[in-house]
């Protein structure tokens, strides 16, 4: 091969690389345009997030084929009976501590960047759960085999250590219906540390949904059409500022999911007052959850990629085992479900499910009228008994 031929091939390879790069940039730009809607106002958060105040009727939800032409619904009167049972602060997120807020008629949305999408496994998979070669580990409490129309609980907030940027640590509550591995419907909320999704190790408030067992529907937060946000006080996917400390002050997020018996929509709330309803998952998104959930779960999860060849040192909860108790271990308190008469009731037959007892586990808390049914959960991952 002579010099001219080598040089020609090199030029062709460079040209092809430039074409591929241009194509990728164009695809990312198109995706960003789909997700990020025009802002009436922009707020710069101290954690580096850009918060766009978007008109409520222009939010991503209404790009969904089943929701086109609709407008955000008002919180139903039927949900006002669930009164607040503890004091909560609206300013539990970093972006709002400066005193900045979005105007009436808008909602705050965390702006997605090119870097966010480049961290994903593909443009099409951005914002969705990754079904890859990892070990999924959990320590949860499950209430099953009944008809559930909502649930609530206060989830203790920590910033757990996450070993690899691909891994995450989550504390959450979720309601499901359908068959796992086939047609599962799920709605989820809580907090998570997930570097690959957000580009940092902050503890963030999140939601997720799927209508087909995580195959092709649903996503985190507002990263795809679906969830309709109605409240301007909260950023879904935003950094949480109130973090618990070991043997120090403890913070929890009181979260609830409630089904509106008229529309079938599932409403998400922070705190226990109806004025703190954040938005809803439309019933149209689901098959089985059009009716009711048949399982409610509370607890922690991590994913273990075994990047060092052994068990991950990613921790769950506070990173301490539940036996250490208050101020040291993570907890979820006031765990309740909503029956078909729309009454809040304690868990009747809670089942503790732990994937690896020596790495992460749960313990039921002592009887306490202020805390209701509650658990401690978590663990430190890799260790003497968790190789």
From TrEMBL:
Q: Tell me which residues make up the Neprosin PEP catalytic domain.
A: 130-387
Phylogenetic classification of the source organism: Eukaryota, Viridiplantae, Streptophyta, Embryophyta, Tracheophyta
Q: Which organism is it from?
A: Vicia faba
Query: Sorted alphabetically, which Pfam families does this protein's record hold?
Result: Neprosin (PF03080), Neprosin_AP (PF14365)
What's this protein's name? Answer: Neprosin PEP catalytic domain-containing protein
Matches recorded under InterPro entries: Glutamic_endopeptidase, Neprosin, Neprosin_propep
Record's PANTHER family?
CARBOXYL-TERMINAL PEPTIDASE, PROTEIN, PUTATIVE (DUF239)-RELATED-RELATED
